[in-house]
Specification:
The complex is a heterodimer. By secondary structure, chain A is of the alpha+beta class. Chain A has three domains: about 180 residues, Uridine Diphospho-n-acetylenolpyruvylglucosamine Reductase, domain 3, CATH 3.30.465; about 90 residues, 2-Layer Sandwich (Alpha-Beta Plaits); about 80 residues, Alpha-Beta Plaits. Chain A is about 30% helix and about 25% strand. Chain A is built from 13 helices and 17 strands. In chain A, strands 4, 5, 6, 7, 8 and 9 form a six-stranded antiparallel sheet that branches. In chain A, strands 11-12-10-13 form a four-stranded antiparallel sheet, with helices on both faces. The radius of gyration of chain A is 21 Å and the shape is globular. In chain B, about 35% of the residues lie in helices and about 20% in strands. Chain B folds into four domains: about 90 residues, Uridine Diphospho-n-acetylenolpyruvylglucosamine Reductase, domain 2 (2-Layer Sandwich), CATH 3.30.43; about 120 residues, 2-Layer Sandwich (Uridine Diphospho-n-acetylenolpyruvylglucosamine Reductase, domain 3); about 100 residues, Alpha-Beta Plaits (2-Layer Sandwich), CATH 3.30.70; about 140 residues, Alpha-Beta Plaits. By secondary structure, chain B is α+β, with helices and mostly antiparallel strands. Chain B is globular, with a radius of gyration of 23 Å. In chain B, strand 5 and strand 6 form a beta hairpin. Classes of the chains: A alpha+beta, B alpha+beta. At the A-B interface, strand 8, helix 6, helix 8 and helix 13 of A face strand 9, helix 8, helix 9, helix 11 and helix 17 of B.
Chain lengths: ~375, ~500
């Protein structure tokens, strides 16, 4: 494995790979290598040396860091100023059974969002600028380190969720968000998915600005004593305003109780996919229009699952044989099923996502080639 | 401003092109002189050009057929929504088809369960809100032209508004689009789930200023209307103190729904224009907090404490009428400025908020250097600066000086880490300044993306990216005799 710690070194490495026409894998913490199509035995470029917070101005709401910076480091620095990343980035090392340290660049490249996405959107909604090296070995930037910018194409959007296939990132600037001083979680226990998700959607469409809306089925390993299942509502604010928001939420969802368990920990487990760690099932993340989540659950009847984002995301643990049904159900309900974890054979056969319609696949391929004409970066992974 | 040469071969085939378009869209082709004249500019009316022909399709199949034809024949296409662009994004070409989406204005579906509206591109921004407001919902981005501008145009320009810091731009408020590529192929990007199952092409086409294709359907996210909005006016003895207050409010974790800065010249002009009760001060901040009552009270209390600590004076609007009056002042800023001089140019840069005192001081120097006065309105929450340059076009050399002053202001924005455009777009007006903001590799990368989707270079040629024959420096919205282009639209 070659290691780099400066943008110039990245450029040099890419130019050499281009000259040799040798594709390579981009690795930082290495925690997400188990997701996506296996790329075979390729040389790897270790970018974990591109690490560290480069600039943080809390009053500008912008943090700039090298992509190999550990998520834990970013979180610690932001929380000192009561701020956070909008996409609530997830460390998937438990569910993927990997060692290593989850990084900022890995999380945004994999679109690894957590329950907090509900409030502030995905990585795409807060990555305002980046630097990267393209497939020609040229360093370039996209976006700018300001909150509001419409100058030129919005290239930062493309880099989020691209699984490293468009460039080797060397610098990332995120818009950050204030974090409230207090949080309360309400639990509506012993409700079916239909009833639970309906309650969550009601809160989602209120003015309460919830920061987490999760449904857990009764058999979840994360929480006991919830009957057939529970809807969890997370609200945040300063102490007194929060109390009033909780009262209003009670008015909207009758029967919800203030959680007596460690809800913060629970939402962290939801984010990480802890419930899906171990075992020999495949793990799916299925993005859906929220109203479709209970329908997909009813049709599939999975033994291991949970719903995040008020139904906008289903985590599903399923037997490998269920794959075609899951993909078909996702498509039928206007969603997308991402295969997060499976055997190498299964991943090779299914890919991260279902194949796109031909015109869209061609558009995506052409855009990819605009960055990396020889397809050197993480070939075939996405 | 220099435009690419017209293709004389296309000009000579005009009759044939018009006839073929009439076959595709029998009831939607405008080819007569007087008809074409109504499409010769958008809201940046300094630049005018009659199009070769205007076609107004009424469904996506017609759009696709027009694009297939234009692609096969190598005819340039300029897409247009309502023509309210402030950067010349919809300026026609003599050798190009102007593709107007204004007839496609159906709201296809309202889905409260999933918090979205599915609309055709010609639906106005405000009509999305109107369709859902009875149920207590609204569409958040609110460009000042919202009564007229179309949702399709909003997607093309990634339009903003007064509330971007809290609610984001268009790109953060749409879940999906149906998009027609230059070769006529129709693709669906995203949908009610917001997910795409691949790279974020939805993010790419949003704000691409008509350079990549045509949006024919939009899934727009709607939000619950905040039950409470409160407004305060804070005034300060120095610009630096106002800047410090803005920074302290943000650092304290308050996200105001809007936070508008006006300098002394601006506040005084407004006060003499419609007397909203703005105090005599070096800087005035107009701040909205919205949400549930408890959060709003908390935010207003914290803002009040910060303003007091910094030595400012705070006044709160006590009722809805007072609130409207405070905002009427700010919303009349452009009109009020228009009274101060025969002509006015509105700039649109974006800067890190912390750079505001430095940028204002530098602009004062530039003002003295060019011998032109100016004033400032500033979306302080999100760093979007709108300097208004005052001049007199009838005075020889004034226009050129104003243009040069404007270009220097945008370069200043870039120098302090900001950008050429916070919300108006690059279009034709800031095209030649792109090299001041982006390096050659940065621009080449964007060019390659353009070529990947529009290899024929037929979509909105001459916009956004500088041509080899870069020429006059530009960067302004030109207003003559206090008359804004589209005077029926408020601009703020």
């Amino acid at each position: 494995m070659s290691a780099v710690s400066t943008e110039a070194q990245v450029s040099e490495f890419v130019r050499a790979a281009r000259a040799d026409k040798t594709p390579f894998e981009i690795v930082a913490g290495g925690t997400r290598r188990g997701a996506g199509k296996p790329m075979g035995d390729l040389p790897a470029l270790d970018v974990s040396g591109l690490s560290g917070i480069l600039k943080y101005e809390p009053e500008e709401l912008i943090i700039t860091a090298a992509p190999g910076t550990p998520l834990s480091e970013i979180r610690a620095v932001l929380s000192e100023k009561n701020q956070c990343l909008g996409f609530d980035p997830a460390d998937w090392s438990q569910v993927l059974g990997s060692n290593g340290i989850a990084t900022l660049g890995g999380a945004m490249s994999a679109d690894a969002y957590g329950p907090g996405r509900l409030r502030h959107g995905g990585a795409r909604d807060s990555l305002v600028a980046f630097r990267a090296v393209n497939g020609m070995g040229e360093a370039f930037r996209g976006g700018a380190k300001v909150v509001k910018n419409v100058t030129g194409f919005d290239v930062p959007k493309l880099m989020c969720g691209a699984f490293g296939t468009l460039g080797v990132l060397t610098e990332l600037s995120f818009r950050v968000y204030p974090r409230a001083s207090h949080a309360t979680t309400l639990c509506l226990a012993d409700v079916t998915p239909d009833v639970g998700f309906a309650a969550l959607r009601k809160i989602a469409h209120s003015a309460l600005e919830p920061t987490g809306l999760v449904y857990l089925p009764g058999n979840t390993p994360l929480l006991g004593g919830i009957g057939v299942g529970a809807a969890l509502i997370r609200l945040e604010g300063a102490r007194e305003p929060l109390a009033e928001k909780v009262t209003q939420a009670h008015g909207l969802v009758e029967g919800a109780q203030v959680a007596s368990f460690d809800a913060r920990r629970l939402f962290e487990d939801v984010r990480s996919g802890t419930a899906f760690a171990g075992g020999d099932h495949d793990v799916w993340r299925v993005a859906l229009p929220p109203s479709e989540a209970p329908k997909v659950v009813a049709a599939l009847n999975p033994s291991l699952w949970l719903g995040d984002l008020a139904g906008g995301l289903l985590w599903i643990g399923a037997a490998p044989a269920d794959a075609a049904r899951i993909r078909a159900l996702a498509a039928k309900h206007d969603g997308h099923a991402m295969l997060l974890r499976a055997s190498p054979e299964q991943r090779a056969a299914l890919g991260l996502f279902a194949p796109q319609p031909p015109a869209l696949a061609m558009m995506a391929r052409n855009v990819k080639a605009a960055f990396d004409p020889l397809f050197l970066f993480n070939p075939g992974r996405l | 401003m220099k435009f690419p040469e017209s293709n004389t071969e296309i000009l000579s085939r005009r009759d044939e092109i018009v006839a073929r378009l009439r076959e595709i869209v029998p009831d939607g082709v405008v080819a007569d002189k007087s008809g074409l004249a109504t499409f010769d500019c958008d809201a940046l009316s300094t630049y005018r050009q009659q199009p070769l022909v205007v076609v107004l399709p009424s469904n996506r199949e017609q759009v696709s057929a027009v694009l297939r034809y234009a692609n096969a024949e190598g005819i340039p296409i300029v897409p247009r929504g309502s023509g309210t662009s402030l950067s010349g994004g919809a300026l026609p070409r003599a050798d190009g088809i102007l593709l107007g989406l204004g007839r496609m204005k159906r709201i296809i579906e309202i889905d409260y369960e999933n918090g979205c509206v599915v609309a055709e591109p010609g639906v106005t921004n405000l009509n999305i809100t109107k369709a859902v407001e009875a149920q207590g919902f609204y569409y958040a981005p609110d460009p000042s032209s919202q009564v007229a501008c179309s949702i399709g145009g909003n997607v093309a320009e990634n339009s903003g508004g007064l509330h971007c810091l809290k609610y984001g731009l268009t790109t953060n408020n749409i879940l999906g689009v149906t998009f027609v590529l230059p070769d006529g192929e129709i693709v669906k990007l995203g949908g009610k789930s917001g997910a795409q199952g691949g790279i974020d092409l939805l993010g790419l086409i949003t704000g691409s200023e008509g350079l990549l294709g045509v949006v024919v359907e939009i899934v727009a996210r709607i939000l619950r209307k905040p039950p409470v909005t409160r407004t305060v006016l804070a005034s300060f003895d120095t610009v630096t103190a106002a800047g410090a207050a803005v920074a302290a409010i943000i650092a304290d974790g308050v996200v105001p729904a809007a936070m508008e800065f006006m300098d002394r010249a601006c506040a005084e002009a407004i006060e003499s224009y419609n007397a909203p009760g703005y105090p005599k001060a070096e800087a005035v901040l107009l701040i909205d907090a919205d949400g549930v009552e408890a959060d709003v009270s908390d935010a207003i209390a914290r803002i009040g404490a910060i303003v007091a600590r910094i030595g400012g004076t705070l006044k709160e609007a006590t009722d809805e009428q007072a609130r409207a009056k405070m905002w009427a002042g700010r919303k009349a800023a452009f009109a009020a400025m228009g009274k101060l001089a025969p002509d006015m140019m509105c700039m649109d840069g974006s800067i890190p908020r912390g750079a505001l005192p430095e940028v204002l001081a530098e602009m004062d120097k530039l003002s003295a250097q060019y011998g032109l006065s100016f004033c400032n309105v500033f979306h302080a929450g999100d760093g979007n600066l709108h300097p208004l340059i005052l001049f007199d076009q009838d005075k020889p050399g004034d226009l050129e000086r104003a243009e040069a002053f404007g270009a220097d202001i945008l370069r200043l924005c870039v120098r302090v880490g900001g950008v050429l455009s916070g919300e108006h777009g690059v279009g034709i007006e800031k095209r030649d300044l792109m090299t001041d903001m982006f390096s050659e590799p940065d621009l080449e990368q964007q060019h390659r993306i353009k070529c990947a989707i529009d290899p024929g270079g037929l979509f909105n040629p001459g916009k956004v990216f500088p041509t080899l024959s870069a020429c006059i420096e530009q960067g302004h919205l030109h207003v003559h005799g206090a008359q804004m282009p589209r005077p029926d639209l408020p601009r703020y």
